[in-house]
Each structure stands twice: as structure tokens, then as C-alpha cells.
Design a protein that fits this description.
Elements: E1 2-9, H1 16-24, E2 29-35, E3 41-47, H2 49-61, E4 68-76, E5 85-87
Parallel strand pairs: 2-5
Antiparallel strand pairs: 1-3, 1-4, 2-3
Length: 88
């Protein structure tokens, strides 16, 4: 299962991407996260459905959860040519 997630709020300049990458190490997921010019953070994540769901829940409940004011999730086709979890 692959998801594209957009986070809104105070998610840039606060270590959000690094916290997301660190959180990903605890799950069997791969993908990437990056800042967007519109102030949001975009993430693509792929893995088994239960791993992706648990990872997204961990972000919602994590140390920077208070910075998230909105979350928009879209289904994606499986990611190709991606291994690990990186910051772009």
C-alpha cells in the first residue's frame, strides 16, 4: 500500500522531516518526505497496510503532532526505485 500525505500547520523549520525519518526507522516502510514551497510537508510512504497505518498513526501521536493542523491522504500506486526512507 502506498500513500501520499500532505501535512499542514507549523511543519517547516521545526524538525518535522527529521522526526518523520526517525519514526520511519521503527516500521517496515519506505519512501520519502520533503518540504513544499506552499508551506506544507509532502510524504510518500509504501509498505504493508498495517505498517503504513501504524507509521501514520505514530506521526499523528509523535513529538511534533501539535504542529500538524491538517493532514490530506491520497492512495498511490506502489513506489518504484525507492529503498529506505529519505528526506528530499
Amino acid at each position: 500500500m502506498a500513500k501520499q500525505v500532505f501535512y499542514e500547520g507549523r511543519v517547516q523549520g521545526v524538525g518535522f522531516r527529521y522526526a518523520t525519518k526517525r519514526e520511519a526507522m521503527g516500521f517496515d516502510v519506505f519512501g520519502w518526505v520533503r518540504n513544499r514551497s506552499d508551506g506544507r510537508v509532502e510524504m510518500h510512504v509504501d509498505g504493508e497496510p498495517e505498517e503504513v497505518d501504524a507509521f501514520l498513526e505514530a506521526i499523528r501521536d509523535g513529538q511534533l503532532s501539535g504542529n500538524i493542523q491538517g493532514e490530506e491522504i491520497h492512495d498511490l500506486p506502489p513506489l518504484e526505485d525507492v529503498s529506505g526512507f529519505s528526506i528530499r
